[in-house]
Design goal:
The complex is a heterotrimer of chains A (169), B (239) and C (457). Chain B is an alpha+beta fold. Helix content of chain B is 18%, strand content 17%. The model of chain B has no long low-confidence stretch (mean pLDDT 92). Chain C has helices spanning 2-9, 13-20, 29-54, 70-81, 83-94, 104-124, 151-184, 187-197, 204-237, 249-275, 284-315, 318-330, 332-349, 353-357, 359-386, 401-424, 430-439, and strands at 440-445, 448-453. Chain C is built from 17 helices and two strands. Classes of the chains: A alpha+beta (169), B alpha+beta (239), C mainly alpha (457). Chains in contact: A-B, A-C, B-C.
């Protein structure tokens, strides 16, 4: 569903984006592919909101429960008297709860991040290795047909070095 | 979670005014508990395996020299610093008030040995499998294990003797009588400087002696609440 | 701020990639030689350790009462070193300091490798290493869980968390760079990098999520790092051993860790810069700024140490003062080396811009700091144990050849992991450095053209 055009520099890439928007393509369907992050709006405007931090929070809560059960729960179920310490001791329970909360918060953050990025991808998407060396890709999400051809010609007019789309992968 | 209680709370009293420093208790402990016989080299390296040591202090200048003896063994602290630090529960507090050491659970982190302020815990740095050259291996007690290398050990108040007496008493349906259970050191002491018994029984000999005005405990300021009381007085000095 | 950007602005993206990824070229015979030598030291250490496991712990120098020796000094040292990457990387990310960019990868990799080495030592020093699984909490027919009241279990939990956390932190930071490497690789390497890069394409949305995730991870990993070293400090501080039972230990250890870590990052930067010809990317400016950070941390460390000794001296509790006198009497040369290396030299020398910008001077200062930090760990552990509460059992300790071999193998193993990492993974944060080029422009302001940099959101 994507058509990708490769451009030499920022000027030609932004010319392409302007051309596509003028021709009626919605900005949400256009995105840039770069190997270094450009500030928002320089090439395309993107939604800046993310939700993966809630997965991190969920992980943290799960971890806290797991830690509490591990430190306090196992001590309660198999009580062994050691020194003057109570069977369920505050500080050790607190420490283990905290550590596991952080561990699962971190795991949740990473998992959430990948989920939100939708990586690894289920099907192959258009890409060009030149992007790694500083070329900029402009990708338009458009179903095959007239609109697709229009997008491709607009990209070429703006100065794309080459275009690829899913069918040619 | 119910608390397991026991009618016994083992304690000991050591009368330093009676102790002659003969060391018979050390030998008895070694014989009773399969304590490894160490070579001279090991002892020089600081790796002796004595569960009970007689500390000897010289006081004064010649010709007015005096010597003081202090038998130090596991104090079986009620608030033992060695117990909470063991990561695998090899060191724990038993309902009888003993500090238990479980040899087959010990992983050998030696944290308990570091945290014992009395330094009574000994570690098997050497492999003592062949520490009893024949025919000394005939003396090994079958009631207690021979510890492998990498395991911490210490005085257990001859728990094997306590267990045996408990079984006999249970079979006869009675409580343990005062003086019936005697650890090897207590049994051997020629001057009866060491007395052992049930401290929670106010009429036992050890209980009465532990209320003596001559009593003190080692390193009281650390708040470990040992089960062993030392008696020293005769007048002036304290150890 | 202007020097690196001007130098880099003149280069094309392709050229920047080539230079920053130069470490990943086909290995030279020098690389093989180094790897082989380090591998040999590691093999020697492993054989020494095997000898220890097959015989018994008497091959070490440990005795009663010094039951922890150089193995635990190693453990604490390597955990301290692992604070390098996370602290440097996370703090600089969160404060949005631009000069962090070339340094990040090296620092984060250092964290992962040093915490890995650190995690080995609690297993190495055990009396019965083969039952180390008793530490693990899982339902079993022994009817026992491990004792979470023990600081050693807190250690195990914290180090597990930190290894996983810092590895993920390193991987996360590397994600866009792995995509760059994937695009430039061929053959089996391309397949491996493609798997690692998880299909990253660099779309605008991916970058937005990536930036937020990096910030969140940085914010999460800092508390973990602080807690890890505090927990290691509690191994000592919660005991009744005189000289260990001190409330300043957790903050003191964390400060020491940051000192050690920052110094190690600087040392590593110097080595990488030389070996991989990254002079344009790791400029005297970076050393200047890291030097300032190091100065502040060394001042903090000096303060903490001063406070520690001063309270011991003033209250003059007999056994605590005895431990300090014994340490300063028996280990005087080590103590002096430690104070000079950690405190006197850095605090005086790093005040001067010329010294901070001199790569040679920084190398000497930072290597000395880490030697001094190792000595500091040793001087905390051994003298306190030598002179505990009962004078009749005072003892001493000196490390044996087995322990020294394992220590050497730890250093060699760390360096070897680093050498291998540098060959297979991008050592400089490529996309991060190029981000600077992307954001910069020259605008006309008044009578002249001014160099301007757009800020991160």
């Amino acid at each position: 569903m994507e058509t990708l055009g490769i451009f030499k520099d920022v000027e030609t890439a932004t010319r392409a984006v302007d051309g596509l928007i003028k021709a009626g393509f919605r900005e949400e369907t256009i995105t840039s592919l770069t190997s270094a992050p450009y500030p928002d709006g320089v090439i395309v405007k993107t939604d800046q909101r993310t939700w993966f931090r809630w997965m991190s929070a969920a992980g943290g809560i799960f971890g806290a429960c797991a830690g509490f059960l591990l430190a306090a729960g196992t001590a309660y179920v198999y009580p062994v008297q050691t020194g003057d310490k109570p069977i369920i001791a505050y500080y050790p329970t607190g420490i283990i709860t905290y550590e596991l909360a952080m561990l699962f918060a971190i795991l949740g953050a990473i998992a959430g991040m990948f989920l939100e990025m939708k990586l690894p991808p289920r099907k192959e998407r258009p890409y060009d290795p030149a992007i790694a060396d500083g070329f900029i890709g402009i990708s338009v999400s458009v179903p095959p047909g007239d609109r697709r051809n229009r997008a491709e010609s607009l990209l070429k007019e703006a100065g794309a070095l080459r275009t690829t789309s899913e069918e040619t992968l | 979670m119910e608390k397991i209680t026991s009618p016994y709370k083992w304690g000991m009293v050591i009368d330093l005014d009676r102790c002659t420093g003969c060391g018979a208790c050390v030998v008895a402990c070694q014989a009773e508990n399969n304590v490894a016989i160490c070579e001279k080299k090991e002892i020089a390296e600081g790796r002796n395996m004595h569960w009970l040591r007689i500390e000897r202090f010289w006081v004064g200048e010649y010709p007015d020299v005096r010597v003081r003896f202090l038998p130090v063994l596991c104090q079986h602290c009620h608030d033992a610093p060695c117990e909470p630090v063991c990561p695998v529960y090899a060191s724990y507090h038993n309902p009888d008030g003993l500090n238990g050491q479980v040899y087959n659970r010990c992983v050998g982190t030696r944290y308990c040995g570091n945290n014992c302020p009395y330094a009574v815990r000994v570690f098997n740095f050497h492999d003592h499998e062949h520490a009893w050259p024949s025919p000394l291996d005939n003396q090994l007690s079958p009631d207690i294990t021979v510890r492998s290398r990498g395991v911490m050990e210490k005085c257990s108040f001859c728990i094997q003797r306590i267990r045996r007496v408990k079984e006999d008493a249970k079979a006869e349906g009675r409580m343990i009588k005062d003086g019936e259970v005697q650890p090897a050191c207590v049994q051997t002491c020629p001057t009866e400087a060491m007395v052992f018994g049930n401290i929670s029984d106010p009429h036992s000999r050890v209980s009465r002696l532990s209320r003596s005005p001559r009593r003190f405990q080692l390193l009281e300021n650390l708040g470990t609440h040992p089960s062993i009381y030392y008696l020293k007085g005769g007048g002036r000095e304290h150890v | 701020m202007s020097e690196p950007e001007h130098a880099l602005a003149a280069k094309s993206a392709g050229q920047l990639n080539d230079e920053m990824l130069s470490s990943m070229r086909t290995p030279t015979w020098q690389w093989y030689g180094l790897a082989f030598f380090l591998g040999a030291v590691v093999a020697w250490g492993i054989s020494a350790f095997t000898y220890q496991v097959m015989t018994d712990l008497s091959v070490t120098g440990l005795d009663r009462p010094v039951m922890w020796g150089i193995y635990i000094a190693n453990f604490v040292f390597w955990v301290g070193l692992s604070h390098s990457g996370t602290m440097v990387s996370a703090i600089l990310r969160l404060s949005q300091a631009n000069w962090r960019r070339p340094i990040l990868r090296a620092a984060e990799a250092m964290t992962v490798f040093s915490i890995t080495v650190a995690g080995l030592f609690p297993v190495i020093h055990l009396g019965r290493n083969w039952v180390v699984y008793y530490f693990m909490p899982y339902p079993n027919q022994r009817g026992l869980w491990p004792n979470f009241r023990s600081p050693l279990l807190w250690d195990a939990t914290a180090i597990t968390t930190y290894i996983i956390g810092s590895s993920l932190f390193l991987y996360l930071g590397m994600l866009p760079d792995l995509a760059v490497v994937r695009d430039r690789a061929t053959g089996w390497r391309k397949k491996v990098y493609a798997i690692l890069a998880m299909g990253w394409r660099g779309t605008a949305r991916e970058w937005v999520v990536f930036r937020k995730a990096s910030t969140l991870m940085a914010a999460l990993i800092i508390p973990v790092a602080v807690s890890v070293h505090s927990i290691v400090a509690w191994d000592f501080a919660v005991t009744v051993v005189p000289g260990w039972h001190s409330t300043i230990f957790p903050p003191y250890f964390v400060i020491g860790a940051i000192t050690s870590g920052v110094a190690a990052v600087i040392t590593l930067m110097i080595i990488i810069r030389r070996v991989f010809h990254l002079e344009d990317y790791l400029t005297p400016l970076h050393f200047d700024n890291m030097g300032k950070l190091l100065l502040v941390i060394c001042l903090l460390w000096s303060y903490a140490y001063f406070v520690e000794v001063q309270t011991t001296w003033y209250a003059h509790e007999p056994i605590e003062w005895e431990v300090w006198s014994f340490m300063s009497g028996k280990y005087t040369p080590l103590l002096i080396l430690m104070l000079v290396g950690n405190s006197v030299l850095p605090v005086t020398a790093l005040c001067f811009k010329k010294i901070r910008r001199s790569v040679r001077a920084m190398l000497v200062i930072t290597v000395l700091i880490n030697i001094a930090m190792f000595i500091e760990r040793y001087l905390i552990i051994v003298p306190s144990l030598s002179h505990k509460n009962m004078p009749f059992v005072w003892g001493s300790y000196s490390p044996s050849w087995v322990e020294l071999s394992v220590t050497a193998a730890a250093f060699a193993g760390f360096t070897l992991m680093y050498t291998l990492f540098a060959k297979f993974f991008p050592m400089v944060a490529v996309t991060d450095v190029r981000e600077l080029g992307v954001r910069h422009t020259d605008i006309k302001l008044g009578r002249t053209k001014v160099h301007s940099l757009s800020e991160e959101e």
